[in-house]
Amino acid sequence: MGHFVKKTEDILAGHFFWPKMRRDMERFVARCTTCQKAKSHLNPHGLYIPLLVPSAPSEHISMDIVLGLPRTKKGRDSVFAVVDRFLKMAHFIPCRKSDDATHVADLFYREIIRLHGVPNTIVSDRDRFLKMASC
Questions:
Q1: Residue 76, exposed/middle/buried by CB under 10 A (0-12, 13-18, 19+)?
Q2: What is the dihedral of CA 128, 130, 133, 135, to 10 degrees?
Q3: Which of 35, 70, 122, 125 keeps 20 to 30 A from 17, CA to CA?
Q4: Band of the pLDDT at 131, cuts 50, 70, 90?
Q5: Of 66, 67, 98, which is closest to residue 82 (Cα–Cα)?
Q6: Are β-strands 60-66 and 121-124 bridged in parallel, bridged antiparallel, or unpaired?
């Protein structure tokens, strides 16, 4: 049912009755862990905006951090992935989950800007690691 309060109340009222049934049902729905995991608590984001079509290499890039990988001998457990959206060429830069914003910015400068210049646009999924790195 998904624990919609009105729908659940209608079904229960067809079979049962007790005083303050609505209040008990609202409390049950509010405490249901399955419902809390399934319900979105984010605000609607509006319409999606299509990305610009790249017209030249190294102008538009996307980036992401892949976490939770097995640790290497040098202690790296993550990969900083940067993709040129025109050429579909990717740079996979090893890093640590514990790297701070200055280290990620240094990696970006050393591995991307040094080789290809400053891009016009950068697209990311804005996950927790990149938010931390953009501080």
A1: middle
A2: -80
A3: 35
A4: very low
A5: 66
A6: parallel
User: Is the CA virtual torsion 109, 110, 112, 114 positive or negative?
Assistant: positive
Instruction: Write down the residue that tokens 């998904």 correspond to.
Output: 2
Average pLDDT, the chain: 83
106/134 Cα distance (integer angstroms): 12
Tokens of 104: 């990620």
Rounded to an integer, the average pLDDT of 19-40 is 77
Q: Classify the C-alpha dihedral 40-45-46-50 as positive or negative.
A: negative
Q: Which whole number is the average pLDDT over 58-71? A: 92
Model-wide pTM > 0.70 = no
